[in-house]
Amino acid sequence: MTLLAAFQVLLWRYSGQSDVLVGSPIANRNRAETEPLIGFFVNTLVLRTRLAGGLSFRELLGRVREVCLGAYAHQEVPFEKLVEELQPSGA
Questions:
Q1: CB within 8 A of 22, min separation 6: which ones?
Q2: d(CA 87, CA 90)
Q3: 27 contact partners, CB below 8 Å, separation of at least 6
């Protein structure tokens, strides 16, 4: 999580955007019946962190931790379904 926080700070510095989203693959093998199977079960997690001004790095780490734990708790939701439901507008 420390590397993710540092990477998001780097993206924030280069882009000037305070809302940073990073896509991360996850194995998505949280059920016992899928563990012995061979195949590609990867799902994409979107880790969104808001980097408001005045945050210390320790506070940012706490925020990134919350974001990651929340994403891991809902990792079974397919990325395609998430995009379909949210219908984000293209930039």
A1: 4, 7, 8, 11, 46, 47, 49
A2: 9
A3: 41, 42
